[in-house]
Each structure stands twice: as C-alpha cells, then as structure tokens.
Amino acid sequence: MILIVPDKFKGSLRAEEVADAIESALGRTMLGGSISRIVKVPLADGGDGSLEIMEHALGGKSTRVEVDTLDALLRPLKVPVLLYDGGSSVFMEMAKVCGLSMLSPEERNPEKTTTYGLGLLMNAAVKLGCRKIVIGIGGSSTNDGGEGLLRAVEEAGGCPAEIVVACDVDNPLLGINGATMVYGPQKGADEAMLERLERRMEAFAAKAGLDTMVPGGGAAGGVGAALYKLGARLTPGWQVFSEMVGLEGLVAEADTVITAEGRFDSQSLCGKLVDGVLTLCRKYGKKPVVVCGQNSLKREIWKKAGIADVYALRDIEKNVSECILHGRKLLSGEGVAVAGCDEAGRGPLAGPVYAAAVILPEGFNHPLLNDSKQMTQTQREELRPIIEREAVAWAVTAVDAEEIDRINILNASIKGMQDSVRKLKVKPDVILVDGNRFSNCDGIPYHTIVKGDARIQAIAAASVLAKTHRDEYMKKIAVEYPQYGWDRNMAYPTKEHRDAIRKYGLTKYHRRSFHSETDKD
Predict the structure, then answer these.
(1) How many CB atoms lie within 10 A of CB 389?
(2) Are 297 and 385 in a shared domain?
(3) Which of 332, 361, 387 is the last residue of a domain?
(4) Are residues 367 and 406 in the same domain?
(5) pLDDT per residue over 128-160, tens digit each?
(6) Total count of domains within the chain
(7) pLDDT tens digit sequence for 267-313
(8) Exposed, middle or buried by CB within 10 Å (0-12, 13-18, 19+), for 249?
(9) Model confidence over 178-195: pLDDT tens digits?
(10) Is residue 480 part of a domain?
(11) pTM for the structure as a whole
C-alpha cells in the first residue's frame, strides 16, 4: 500500500489537490503491478486550510456555523467554525480570523495587526455551549503575543472551556528562534521593526506573566504563549489531525509513505506535518519520500533525518511564479519528460556493460513490461521493438571491457547511463535511475530508486533495451569465441565460463579487473 499524506502547497494547491496530483503522477510513472493500493490522507498542521481538513476528517459528523468577529485590522468579519461531538466541541482556524493571506501586501504590518478577533471567536464558542475549543493557530498575520486575544477573553470574564492548540511550530516566544525574529519578516517586518516588535513582546510577556520558554509559545506571533497562559494544551498540529484519521495505523501498514508540503526547509522538521510523518515512520522503521514545491535543505540534513528522497517541483520549473501557477500540472507529471535509466552487464566477466535511457509517451502501457530479469528472453525480444518504436526518445550506450578496467564497473555503468541520456533526442526534465548510485548529468535533476526496474515504467523499459542490446552483442562475439558459451551464459561467472577461462585463457573481451573471479570454484 502506498500512503500519501500531504499538506497544502500554500498559494498553489489545497492538500486534497496535492494528494490527487501525486496519485496521478504515480499512475503515469509506475508499473501497474507495483501499485496494490493507494490511500490518500490530506492533512494539515494548524495553518491555512485546517478547518476544511478537519471537516473532511470528521466525515460528516460536524456542523459548520458562521460567527461574527473582527479581522486582524478590526474590520467586521464572519468566520466559519466546526461544531462536533454533539456541539460540545468546536474547531476554529486562526488563519480565517487574522490570517496573513487575508491581508493585501500593503496591509501587512505586525505593529498594527491584532488577535482581538480570535478572542471574540473563543467567547462566541463558549456562548454556543462548547466545553472544548480546538484552535489551529498557523498562518497568522499577527505578532502581538496574544495581547488582543487575552484582552477579549478577559472582557468576557475568562474562558471556562478546555483549550487544545494545534500548533505547527515549536519555537519559544522570545529570542533569535522566537516568534518575532523567525516569522516577523514574512508578516511585513523589516529589521528596524523586528527590534521594536521584540522589545514590545518582552515587555508584554513580563506584564502578562507569559511563559517565554514553552515550546510552541512563539507560534502565531506569540498566541501559543497566550493560550498556554489560559491553560491550553499545546499539541503539534499534525498530531491533532492524525489522531482523527488513525494515521499511525496507516503508516504501520504502508509499504511506501509519501508526504508533501509547499516549502521544505528547516521549519519542516520542527513540528510541522512532515516532521510528524517522519516521527511515525521512524517508529515503524520506514523512510518516507517528501514531495515539495521548493527544497531548501541539503541532502545530508534530510538523509540524516530519515527521509528516503526529496522531489522538488522547482528542480523542474525554475521560475517561482510558473511553478506556483502550474503546480498541479507539474506535480501530476503531466507534460514532464521522465527518462528512465538502467544498465545490463555489471556482473559478467567479459563484454561491455550496456546502459539505456528511455522516455516513454504519455499513457504508455504494455502487459509484458516489467523488470527485464523477470521476463523471458522471448518476452524481452518481443517488447524491444515496441519500446523503440513508441518511445518519445531512447538511446543505448556500451562501455567496453578496457574502459571498465580503467574506471571500474560502477563508474562505467554510471558513465553509460549518462552518455545514453545525452544521446536522447529529447532532453528530459528529470532522470529516474535504477539502484542507489548516480551522479550529475548536465544539471538534470535525478533520483535513484532501489528496484526501480520493477516499479517504474521508464526504468523497466530501459532495462529491457540494455539487456536485449547486450545479449545481441554477446551472441555475435560468441561466434568468434564459441568455447566460452557466451550465447548461453552471456559471460556471467558460471562454472562453464570459469572452466573455459582456465582452459583457454582470457580474450580481448574479458575484463582484467575481474581476474580474481576466474580463481573461484
């Protein structure tokens, strides 16, 4: 089972749309037999779109109610909340009250925006009879330490309800990693304003008695600390939602886990959805794949975190605006030229290693297509002309024994695949390689996939071409040197081949760097 657990791509796609697009991409690239089942679980971590995700998770067991309040600039506003558990619980999304996306660029000023409207929304929930208030606090435009919220709640005589906070970060309230310094710039603060905001936050924290060190206190411009003062339980947003959908059980069952978000950076590993999925995957010994719009983390960082691979749309489309505008198309793989690469002949004692690169057309499907090692010789030979005729582009390259001895078989295999890509009449947007080793090929984004020839259509097609072209060559030179049986063993280190080497010696086609193999019994 393949489990897809995405967040939204902010400004481009909702979480549900991301899940659908990834499913479409899998359908375009993977062999049909390698997909038993796909389960899509779009989630959120407390930010924009959390209310819709919660509504979906509750599966019709909630009621949406419109409530009057004020936005971040104290303008009248109607905001939806979700009542559930018979109306005793409510879910509200801070981003729908004082969210950054609700303000124009000219209106974004964290010295003026306030959380007062969120406090009014909490008061309204209490009046509706709610005994539990769950608040998603990501995506805010504010940096007031929750001053407005606390003032509104105090004016109503306090908040008697249980408060659970779905918090998407674990930053403290103050300091270099706090609310102001980390998130102030994206809310419209320049360096001079950041200093003023930090001093204001320090003063308010001291006056209101806020806990400045509680993890998550710096979320939403300090709202985390304000709600903590009211007795709230600060919970990672992903955890709130994952419990609603039974995510842990799905992760335990999944063969492959794919998570996604718009921007993958250091904050992704600090309480956001990707971090939550990673936490569950580590528990069950699994390494998830991350799909994102833009990746800002170095390979060694995400590898150390336990991530199998990262696929970024910006690797394919460099223009940010175009990437956002065409996010769905890029994510689904529509119109993306994917070159599959594989080799044949790494193990034999003689002959070249052959490598192939193939770009298949949209919608290509053939019942015989599989890892070439799982196919009969007759099936491979039947499929080869079909692939060569219908492929958008294909190329095959041989690296001879002399070159293999000079640079070693691994480097020869990589060189053969790189040369095959360069020979393609169509430049690919991305390269998918069987195995776990490859290197830069003219700056084209690439990904290595263990057992990719049994999972990815284009890689399987490349494996067929590499194998059949090499077999054809070995049969030709077997006529020249029939005593080695290369028409039967294709120069693999079989007993027949090793016995022939001992009896007749090495030929010009043998790999001298594999000489020790001839001494094996």
Answers:
(1) 8
(2) no
(3) 332
(4) yes
(5) 999 999 999 988 999 999 999 999 999 999 999
(6) 3
(7) 888 778 899 999 999 999 999 999 999 999 999 999 999 999 999 99
(8) exposed
(9) 999 999 999 999 999 999
(10) no
(11) 0.83
